[in-house]
Specification:
The structure is a single chain. With 292 residues, this protein is α/β, with parallel strands linked by helices. It has 14 helices and nine strands. Strands 1, 2, 3, 4, 5, 6, 7, 8 and 9 form a nine-stranded mixed sheet that branches. The N and C termini lie far apart (51 Å).
């Protein structure tokens, strides 16, 4: 089975490398050439365009920033569908709006292309070590067919329902992650302001009900003032914007999400949009004038 991969950014590059390590024959394409050259050095073939990748592949995986990017790469001139053969499978692993996944899937169906929406959670570290959590929407038979391939990039792949369900699940994930990080930032600053060592607070509570994967990943970064991006603030803004739009469309209230969004937007305005979302701590540091 020949695999195409389009989008070799902070997530797509390590995911592609894990596919090569798993023994898959890979052809790749990216807007910037250096990422393509790096993958070619790792054993992939270079595609000339999205259409070229599709023409040479049984399965095409896309990992792109947002809905407009996926639409352009799949539906646009010289895009995936321009080169796709009937029976090809498109797995979009980008985090986009569920309605966009449904629109793209409908266009794919007209050309006989099957589609899964399969966003991931875990950020760059888990993309590198191949332990991403993958949330999948689409036809269950296609999911079953692609299951082993997905596990070349993740430690779990869960079928969530019809097309768009994967991205709905990812939006729920991103809401929970954002609110966890905001709560952690608030609590760590409370500890600091009352004179209690945040390291000790973290050690004391991480094994209790408040403990979480988010806390274990982000508390050490906050304490160390290390905001090197595993997942950028600007990307989380994109995800929460999709969550808010989806919530408004279906009548689901998201007041806490809206508050987290305002905090992230302030950090973007302050020039921190390319930092890790653990930099939500900076919001509280700005309010207090103190550094954790």
């Amino acid at each position: 089975m020949k695999i195409g991969f389009i989008g070799l950014g902070i997530m797509g590059k390590p995911m592609s490398k894990n596919l090569i390590k798993a023994g898959h024959e890979l052809v790749v394409y990216n807007r910037s050439r250096p990422a393509i050259d790096e993958l070619v050095a790792a054993g992939a073939a270079a595609g000339a365009s999205s259409a070229d990748v599709a023409a040479r592949s049984d399965v095409v995986i896309t990992m792109l920033p947002n809905s407009p990017d996926v639409k352009a790469v799949v539906l646009g001139e010289n895009g995936v569908l321009a080169g796709a053969k009937a029976g090809m499978v498109l797995i979009d692993m980008s985090s986009i709006a569920p309605v966009a996944s449904q629109e793209i899937a409908a266009a794919c169906a007209e050309k006989g292309v099957k589609m899964l929406d399969a966003p991931v959670s875990g950020g760059e570290p888990k993309a590198i070590d191949g332990t991403l959590s993958i949330m999948v929407g689409g036809d269950k038979a296609v999911f079953d067919q692609m299951y082993d391939l997905l596990l070349s990039m993740g430690s779990s792949a869960v079928y969530c329902g019809a097309i768009g369900a994967g991205n709905t699940t990812k939006l729920a994930n991103q809401v929970i992650v954002a609110l966890n990080i905001a709560a952690l930032s608030e609590a760590m600053m409370l500890a600091h302001k009352t004179g209690v060592d945040p390291n000790l607070v973290y050690a004391a509570i991480r094994g209790g009900l408040a403990g979480s994967t988010v806390m274990d990943a982000k508390a050490p970064m906050m304490i160390g003032q290390n905001f090197k991006p595993g997942f950028k603030i600007d990307l989380h803004i994109k995800d929460l914007n999709n969550a808010l739009e989806t919530g408004h469309a279906v009548g689901s209230p998201l007041p806490l999400t809206a508050l987290a969004m305002e905090m992230l937007q302030q950090l973007h305005a302050d020039g921190y949009g390319q930092e890790d979302h653990s930099a939500l701590l900076r919001y509280y540091q700005k309010l207090t004038g103190e550094t954790l």
